[in-house]
Amino acid sequence: MGAENATLAFMVGGSEEDFAAALPLLEAMGRRIVHCGGPGLGQAAKVCNNMILAVSQIVVGEAFVLGERLGLTHEALYDVAANASGQCWALTTNCPVPGPVPTSPANRDYQPGFAGALMAKDLGLALQAIEGTGTDARMGRLAQEIYAAFAAGEGAGRDFSGIITDIRDSTSTPVVERSPEGRRRNARQTRARRARQVPG
To answer: Three-state DSSP class for 12?
Structure first.
């Protein structure tokens, strides 16, 4: 779909000559094309970008779960963060809760999108790069661990924003919410936990 609509983004590695030769084809499929340098540097840029994305998607999910427990509605937290310093793609395009961004995968029961298995794969490449360069990237390492666990289960075929469900499931001592929205959310989460506990 992105190629058909010429909306893809390309991060390209290669010589100047090879980039120039490939550019007309890339322009037919993409809206943003960046020559990142020599061979392999397009992949390097993708790995770095997706590490940023993974870390931000995790912390956006954590913020929404924390907000739920503090009594914030999803809409209130979104309206603040989306127009303040917390604004990021993981929030304003890939919002991990249904409602605030109607086109996000959260409104389709986390149908991908970009699947958890693909994010786990890219973070595996990021981890190899971290170790190979000796980079002190603690958040990148932690994101790789989190998404590896997510992709080892049902998360493999779900959008990577569905990591919020793992965050909720691992959060102890459920908060009793008194608002109608909070009670409905608690009921949905309880049903989902019970469904996952039923043997196949």
So the answer is: strand
Q: How far apart are CA 95 and CA 160, in angstroms?
A: 11
Reference 67, options 77, 55, 59; nearest CA is: 77
Give me the residues paired with residue 159 across strands: 115
- In this structure, what is the dihedral angle of CA atoms 166, 171, 176, 181, given to the nearest 10 degrees? -30
Give Cα separations from 147 to 20, 61, 110 (angstroms): 37, 13, 15
CATH label, 41-197, candidates 1.10.3720.10, 2.130.10.10, 1.10.1040.10, 1.10.10.10: 1.10.1040.10
- Respond yes or no: is residue 46 known to be catalytic: yes
Record the pTM. Answer: 0.82
Q: What is the mean pLDDT of residues 153-173?
A: 94
Pairing mode, if any, of strands 30-37 and 8-13?
parallel
- pLDDT for 72-87, tens place per residue? 999 999 999 999 999 9
Q: What are phi and psi of 35, to 5 degrees?
A: -85, 110
Q: Which of 13, 14, 46, 74 is catalytic?
A: 46
